[in-house]
Specification:
The chain is an alpha+beta fold and 56 residues long. The chain is built from one helix and two strands. It has a domain of 37 residues. It has a two-stranded antiparallel sheet with strand order 1-2. The longest helix is centred in the middle third of the chain and has 12 residues. It is elongated, with a radius of gyration of 18 Å. The termini are far apart.
């Protein structure tokens, strides 16, 4: 059986079909993570796009 850490609180979680919240340990942790996404706390760093018309 595979065991993972809950991304929100770090609790050990069994990775099995009966665990509907996996990889989270509970609905609460799942909603905390969703809230972080909604507040744009997770970002992917990137460079601003280059406009070919601005190049000389």
């Amino acid at each position: 059986m595979t065991v993972v850490d809950c991304p929100t609180c770090g609790a050990k979680v069994e990775w099995k079909p009966e665990n509907t919240f996996r990889p989270f340990c509970s609905e609460r942790c799942k909603k905390i993570d969703l809230g972080a996404w909604a507040e744009e706390k997770y970002t992917i760093p990137a460079a601003p796009p280059v406009d070919p018309l601005d190049q000389e």
